[in-house]
Amino acid sequence: MRRPFLSRRSVAARTLAAATLAVAGILPVAIAPAHASPLVGVVAGTGTGTGGGDHDCPTDGLSPELQTRLDEAVQQVMREAGIPGVQVGVWMPGKGNYVRAFGVADKDTGEPMTDKLNMRIGSETKTFTATAVLELVDDGLVGLDDPISKYIDGVPNGDHIALRDLLDMRSGLFSYSADDDFITAFLNDPNRPFTPEELLAYAFKHPNQFPPGAQFQYSNTNYILLGLVVEKMSGESLRSFIHRRVIRPSHLKHTLFPQGAEFPEPYAHGYTNQTPTGEIADTTHWNPSWGWAAGAMISDLQDLKRWAKDVATGTLLKPATQAERLNVLPTGLPGAGYGLGIFNINGWIGHNGSLPGYESLTIYLPEEDATLVVLLNTDVLYQGYEPSTLVGKAITNIITPDHIYDIPPQR
Known about the structure:
This protein is α+β, with helices and mostly antiparallel strands. 29% of the residues lie in helices and 13% in strands.
């Protein structure tokens, strides 16, 4: 949860010698990778079934030449960026599937990565939280243009910040994950729990960055507030609402919103250099509660395959509400727009995620009914690039050269 989605690191965060934490978004932060690990034990993945009963052969329908190109592209990125392990799923109806796992899930034991391991998905959580809010819109319980002050007291300039501004990252609220005191508290004890109220207190110490709606700036604070709105208006916990109204209707069998640091087996170990010394640490059991509605969830490759299309096409929402979600606004990066908890990058619709030790990318290309899911057990940057961006770019260069997923590095 280090990086703002499409914003530069705050001045305060830039003064830190160690690292800046943020629930991932797509724009990298200038932190040098520390002690990149070599590629260990490349392993081909096996196909897995989905909740609907269909089964994916690892390379069903793909030519041997294309399989080889994809294998080589992913492995080259792993070698260059020092990625321990990665899961990749590509599904292109009429053209074929590609399901692979490379490298290791545990650097200590050498356990191989497989395509059946649970992973922390960071800011992909935002797609679930946003869907929950939009379902409340469909229920008539909230309005996109309602001020946040209607639901939550004490928000700076809350009378003028609409729920829409929170969803599309144009509220102007400071991101708690860029606050020095928060970063210190987290790095000193990454196993401690945080409450939503504690997270907001870190954010609200700071003045708002700009008037609501004036510009795009990725802020995890927005989604903590949206999670509280869901709880207030549904009368149940955010975890319960998302499981009942989002996860179950989408038939996601291995996706959960954890209560604390629990991590259902089987899982891959995660590795980060977001530590006080910059040394690589195993983050597998760090408590993700500080990400909460912005980044705490867990999923796997096959669930995210299903979710990619559900969230991009609006399976759980009324058509008019889905149209609001997909109304992406400029972010300041060429080819990249952000809507209501979702992005469109050169035609690929979805979200990425990053928190210490893990990165993910789940995107859908309507033009070709294509889905790409990438799961990695590191968040260590390579030359300013998110590792998930490097893998996503390498794959889309091959499978959809007219629609390349790419986000510039932070320099």
